[in-house]
Design goal:
184 residues, alpha/beta, Rossmann fold, five-stranded parallel beta sheet, 5 strands
Length: 184
């Protein structure tokens, strides 16, 4: 029997979005086992703790597990290549939303290949409906009282509402007018 094709899908997942779920779902369709690797990365100043992010992802991947997909969720705080070796993964899965993602992701893939040439990076393009979703923007929309229901699950939407308080609830009528992003 051959070794199972094990992949790691790393990220901060702060919070997990429908775009992340799209990549996870598609990756579990081509891999025997997928480990969603939640980066602790305090330098990014995450909104949710590592434990909260792991718990949210665990809830979101429940239906995939129920359908027989092998998906695990683990936190990590070391070099991605070291983590991949620890869990027996030979594939790193990365999602690409737009051309702007490619340069950074290509640099990371090249660096990882230099660190361990036996671990491949595989890029999955975001589905058309998910290409524009970024967790950073979802947090901004939620913080400003916008409706994030099209970007995250109801459970994640509720978590965002608890963080930003009842006055920022995505169900408020002013939010129905659309997101109010600050000007850059």
């Amino acid at each position: 029997m051959s070794d199972p094709r094990t992949g790691v899908y790393p990220g901060t997942f702060d919070p997990i979005t429908k775009g992340h779920i799209d990549i996870i779902t598609r990756a579990t369709g081509v891999l025997d086992r997928l480990i969603v690797a939640v980066a602790q990365n305090p330098d990014k100043g995450p909104l949710f703790s590592t434990d909260e992010r792991v718990a949210m992802i665990e809830a979101e991947v429940g239906p995939l597990r129920a359908a027989g997909r092998r998906v695990e969720v683990r936190a990590f705080d070391n070099l991605l290549i070291h983590f991949a070796r620890q869990v027996g993964a030979h594939i790193i899965v990365r999602g690409l939303r737009a051309v702007s993602d490619f340069e950074y992701e290509f640099q990371m893939a090249t660096m990882n290949a230099r660190l361990d040439p036996e671990i491949e990076t595989v890029f999955l393009s975001a589905s058309e409906r998910q290409q524009f979703i970024a967790a950073r923007l979802v947090k901004e929309i939620a913080r400003l009282g916008g409706d994030v229901s099209q970007f995250v699950s109801p459970a994640v939407e509720a978590r965002l509402a608890t963080v930003f308080g009842p006055g920022q609830n995505p169900g408020n009528s002013p939010a129905k007018a659309g997101p109010r992003l600050r000007k850059v």
